[in-house]
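Give me the fold.
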Amino acid sequence: MKTERLSSRLASTLSSILGEILVTCGAVAACGGATGGPGDVGGGSGSPGGQTFELCGSQNGLATFPRNITPSPAVDFLEQRDEIAFSTLGGGGGTAEDFKQTKAFIIGAACAKATDKAACDKKLAALRVLPLDKPTCVQKFPETGMARGGGCAVQYLVYTRGDEVGAVVGKDETKSFLGTIDTPEEALWVLGSTGHWEIACGGKGSPPSTIKKTNDGFEVVFQKNCDNSATQYTIVIGPDGTITEKKREALPPDARAACAVAGRRPDGLVPRLAPRLFVAKKNRAGATAAYFASMAELEAAAVIAFHRLHRELRALGAPKSLLRRVREATRDEIRHTRATRALARRHGATPAPVRVQAFVQRSAFALALENAREGQVRETWGALVACHQAIHAEDPFARAAMKTIAGEETSHAALSWDVARWLERNLTKEQRTMLRAMRSQALRELTTEVSVPIDAEVARAAGLPTGALAKALLSEMDRRVLAA
């Protein structure tokens, strides 16, 4: 029970960090954050007209979507779903049996006002959008973004309204469902749902990102994340959902985006792929393939890291419950390796085998130092990044994979904090001070990593938080998790 509470608290904290810094569709639910309570969704009066809202940080900020969305007429329940069919991801054969359905944000209570709730729940569970016939499916819902391979994919909304169970698919149905775009949250959702805009927060040379009500609708001023150059955009979302680019202007170079890969690495890891491979400009497909290959390499390395962690904890007399969770994490990382290798192959890369130097049993303090760096810092960051990827990856296969990986990586991060608590019981005050210093050093290393420029197409395909946004997320992680 105590373990579940820690995982839940960490998931909630990561969700909150994303929700306050990233004002885009579905960010909260990606980490398993709290969902809305019962009651109507919609029908509200919206946010005060004319007021300017900051889009970054928690002070003077805007309520995170999906709050304050007002479909007309109001509904009892809203859910975002992703579906993929006839997929070769993860060894699938491109058959109907490869159908996958995942869920993102949920607000309201399903079938709350249905006269026959059981029947309504059954209809909701059975609802799917992708056709069972492959040619029809591929024709109507072809894969988008960087994904290739002959399957089909779609993202849509599901709702219940009394006894009615419905799906909202495509821009036209979405506009009809929302009616007049009369709240800032709806305007931001329309902006984010296009797949072309993502709001970056802060930056040394960047003005604040804002949204305000105007006579023409809602005006959003922001930096588009992952641009190869730092550019500020002014976009207007009209009452009918029309998006108009009003202005763009260059910002100082220090506002450029950047990306990083994080996770638990075993001592003695010999990386084969240099991060600079991801910066390729002439061959973007090659850069994207290199990123997923490196991701697969790190996931495979994490398998070794958890296997070693189990051996060392067992030798130190760790409780069975802790050892069981390490074994579960090892199995999770094996699945993550398979999924990311499949992503790399889809983009034309074959991940290299992992090379790790010989294993040497260490003291409790040495193990605690590694856990502080690789677990408490890098795994917590990895979980936060995975939550972002689960929503923002343009490659639908990457997005689907990350929705599973995000929750499991959050559990791994919580495990790292429990391992730290157990190891630190018998350490000296001086050693615990050194652990705090190690966490600070690891955070500085991550800050440097997220400052490395990366190809924009890679970031979009993988859904990576970059540049000022990544730094803002790191800062909040430090304040609310590491320093807590």
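DSSP finds twelve helices and twelve strands in the chain.
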